[in-house]
Amino acid sequence: MNxxxxxxxxxxxxxxxxxxxxxxxxxxxxxxxxxxxxxxxxPLDLSWWTLWLAPALVIWVMMRLxxxxxxxxxxxxxxxxxxxxxxxxxxxVLPRLMPEQTPVTVGHAGxxxxxxxx
Length: 118
Hints:
single chain, 5 helices, 63% helix
């Protein structure tokens, strides 16, 4: 999988790949799929190059196992589109639901400093 080739993203958005839709969801919420995979492999004390190649291999294997795990093409497409819609909803709706935070104001020398309450 070429990381600079955006066809994988287009395939996920069109609903062709559930794995890539999950990678898209993780990206939208600010997580990195390769970092999560590396975190799971770190206790195994593998070499540095293995920790860099393993995430690509795991994602590739997951893509290849999709037809085995979810044999229905129609169900896979609906699941992938659902995951992408959830990702977009999280990105656009969640920030609007969070309360406004008061900014920290730093005054001049000797002036009081206001901080947000916890």
